[in-house]
Amino acid sequence: MGITAEEATVSMSNVTMDTNCIIALEQSGAEAQEVKRIIQAHEAGLIALAVVAISASERTRTGVPLSSFAIFRGRLEMAGFRSVHILKPLARIGLSFNGWAHQADGKKLELERKIHGILFPQHPYEKPDPADPDASARWQNRRCDVLAMWAHIWHRGDIFMTNDRNFLTRQKRQALEALGAGRVVSPADVVRLVVP
User: Fold this and answer.
1) Which helix (H) or strand (E) holds 159?
2) For the chain, first and last CA: distance in Å?
3) What percent of the chain has pLDDT over 70?
4) Cα separation of 14 and 46, whole Å?
5) Does a structural domain hold residue 2?
6) What is the CATH number of the domain that holds 94?
7) Per-residue pLDDT averaged across 58-82, rounded?
């Protein structure tokens, strides 16, 4: 999927990076070079790059959750995100870190439900029975995706950058953009737009 000339005129000031892009950089994945170039564009003042605090709650490679938000900040620094902004998502018990989330209210919860309905229409919004750890882990992964998009929209981001195909399918991308996501694009598309 590419960016049209019309899309290229969109303001690139606020770019939110999802967790998969962080992982691609940490693991020197296929998109690591693109992510590095985007970080350089941020450091050069061409864009304002952000990650979402909920990325600290995503499943780690070891399967052991992070015990503190400070560990996540250290992880970001080691990956090269030294001056990146961190956006607060909606607070969720068992997912959010103290001081790094917005308290829920009607308007905020309504936005979360709408995003869930777009991204995961076939999956329940409510948390499954904790007796099924596999179902709980899948639900947590989906909820982190929802909360990443929630923070991007709530903080008025211009571009949501992801390599997750679930976000990038045409129908879902268009629905998220209509909800206020600005543009939902891949790292390659962001590089084409903001890196000289």
Assistant:
1) strand 159-161
2) 20
3) 89
4) 10
5) no
6) 3.40.50.1010
7) 75
